[in-house]
Design goal:
Blueprint lengths: L17 H15 L2 H7 L5 H18 L2 H8 L8
Length: 82
Amino acid sequence: MTKKEKIPFEQICFGLDRKLDEQSLALFLRLFSKDELLDALLPRLEEDEITGLVQKITELLHKHLAEKEYHELFLGDEDHSH
């Protein structure tokens, strides 16, 4: 996904086509990860909600990324060598 494929938040929509789903999910995740939102949301989450969210994201990362991609793209570890 390139930066020029971004959509405005008013156009977030799922289920119409794959391209729009990907654009919508990318924006949704960017909005979700804003510091101001996380500062307000995280203290309100139950322990099982935190655990479930971390487990699901970790599962998706490991399912769809090679170990090298995981370390470089997610962790920002360019020097990882396993």
